[in-house]
Structures are given as structure tokens and as C-alpha cells.
Amino acid sequence: MAATAKAGKRVGKLTALGVANAKEPGLFGDGANLFLKVDERGNKSWIVRFVIAGRQRKLGLGATHTVSLAEAREKAAEARKLLQEGRDPVEARRAALAAARVANAKVLTFDRCAERYIEAHRAGWKSDKHAAQWAATIKTYVSPTFGSLPVAEIDTGMVMQVLSPIWAKKSETANRVRGRIESVLSWAEVHGYRSGGKNPAQWRGHLDMLLPARSKVAKVEHWAALPFDELPDFMVALRDQPGIAARALEFAIHTATRTSETLNATWSEIDLAKRLWVIPEDRMKAGREHRVPLSAAVLSILKEMKELRTSDYIFPGAKHGKSLSNMAMLVLLCRMQRSDLTAHGFRSTFRDWISEQTNFPSELAEMALAHAVSDKTERAYRRGDMFDKRRALMDAWSAYCASSSADASKVVSLHDRRVE
Questions:
Q1: pLDDT (average), residues 287-304
Q2: pTM
Q3: Residue 196's CB: how many other CB atoms inside 10 A?
């Protein structure tokens, strides 16, 4: 074989054995524009040489260990057909590769879409913990079923495979999973990774035809709460407990705030002169700033904690610059042999006391607990936060917490507190 052999009229000059044994560097023609190329290092590949618009070009077809002689001849024939149509095989190859890249870019898995959804919304969420919960939910419940599948292929049957096993057993979790699947699929549709149509995780008018309503299967679980008439004795025992966790729980009970709101409280949020604690909206469940009037009992706790101040956190944790762990109060309750209770449950104790032992109106109680108002009419009329009236309420509550068991049945009236 000549090192610079040219294609002649006859096609099929090469043989499979000849290709396998070829070692001399050069180009070896098979005919009709197809050549075997052997380089200086002995690597062998196929190329098609042609001239179009007066320009000499060549098209690589692949290495001989991947593309056989017969396959090379087929590919060369396809290139000749393009030339007959006036098309450049090299440009046609580039266009096909570009189209494939675009198509592959459109084929994202559900897991990848979920990751991108989380990243896109992370800045708008209250904390990194929320993003972590999102990712954990997807990984635990969704990924094993269809996380690795193209998002465009997810259908109702697949969503039901995820939800059916947990819908009755883990109602709250299942509903969150459903909502998160729906959000990811909607995100994928908007970005063009799914075609339009009904979202397979949509509840109303779709999954509600296949699954029972949560209210029919969910068991309402209330936070373990202490009966209000047992609270005064509990507060005496709590006051005898040493440590920051005990003071944090006292603070949470007196202010009727959530555990996270208490543990993440900072000195910069406190105005001692005005007896006021302002919790910023980004730390509130309802996403709205909450003003908490501070009773004398709370000011006493703050005075005690100020003497131990090591950072801006009122209730600092063991690690410098960190707040107290959210498990600290539960550990404290276990130490007090009251593992039947939860810190959050004292908010229920507060609410029950208001209903059963006072004449304070229910809307005042809801405002003190920073509950979101669902009724549009009530929201329209409630322009302020009833702060002065809530101060009377919180003073009365702290007085009740410090009362003796004998005083537990005394009814407190809003008007008795001389606040109109």
C-alpha cells in the first residue's frame, strides 16, 4: 500500500484482515472517498475526503477498534449522499451534535430539577434548615422511585407510587412531599423541561380523585401540654432548676413564644426601658414582626441572663457565638421527670388559661400567640397589634405563673386590669 494512496473508481479495496495488519503510517484508500488513516504511533481511524465549493475537506468516522470496515463504508455512503444533495457532511455533523446537546440539556432528571429549584428559592427561605428539609424530603421519599428519571417522564402513576404508602401513615409528611413534587414539576414546566398540561402532583381536581382528604386519614396530634391549674407548682419547680435552659424555658412560658423564637432571641431585639421585645419578621412563622410586652418576671430573667452575657444571644449555647440547642428544653424537662411535656405545649397551657380563667377576648389571645389570622374580615378590622391590651394580658399571665395553687381558680378580667 502506498502511503498516500488515492481513492480509485473501484470500491472495496481494503479487507478486514488488511486493516487489522496495517502498521505503516499513511492513508490507505478503500475507494469512493473512504480512507484508513494510520498515524506515527500506530493508531488507526477512518476518514472521508471530499471537495465541496472548491474547498478540500475531511470527515472523521471514528477509530477502527470502534467502527468496523463495513460500518465505515456505510458512514461514507451517507456522506456521499449528503454531497449529492449539496450539503457539507462536516457541517451536517456539527449541526447534529449541536442539536443533540440542546436535546440533552432539555433532559434533566427530577433530582437535578429539585436541586435547581432549591437553589433558586434558597434566598427567599427563612433559613438553611428549610432548604435542608426540602432536600432530605426529596432524597428520602422521591428519589428512590423516580429521582433518576427524566423530569418530562414523571406521571400520575409515579407520583402515586410515592404517596400511596405514606398517605395514611404519615399524613403531614405525605402532604409536604406532594406539594414539593408539584413545585418541582411546575418549575420544570416553566423552564421548558416538561410539556404543558395538568401537573401530576396537583391536588385539587386531580389527586383528590385518587386519595382521601387528609382530614379523613390524619390523626390530629396536639403538643403535650400541662393543665393550667398545675402550672404554678411547675413554675416553682422550674425556678429551682439551675442553668440557662431553665431560664430559657421560663422566658418562653412567660412570653408565650415558640421555642425557636426564644432560643434565637438577641439582646439587640430587647428594649428594657420600654419593656419590649421585637421579634423580626424573618424569625416569625407568619412572616410578620411581633412585639412582645415584657412583664416584671421576664425583666428579672433578663437581668439574670445579662450578668452571664457572652454574645448577642440572650440564651447562649456551649459553642461561642451560637444559641442554646433546641434540644436543651426537652433535656431539662426529662431531668425534671416531665418527659410527658414539650416546651411548645406551654403555649396551649397559656391559651387554655385565657379561655377558662380570664375574660380576655379570644382575638387578644391569638394576637399574643402571633397566630396568623385566616379570616379576611377580621384581618381588615384588625389594623394594630392590640399592644397595650396585650401588656395587661401578659402581666396577668406572669402573675398567674407566680401564683399559688390556691389562687389558680381566680378569674382575671380585662377591665380589672384597667385597660380599655
A1: 93
A2: 0.52
A3: 7
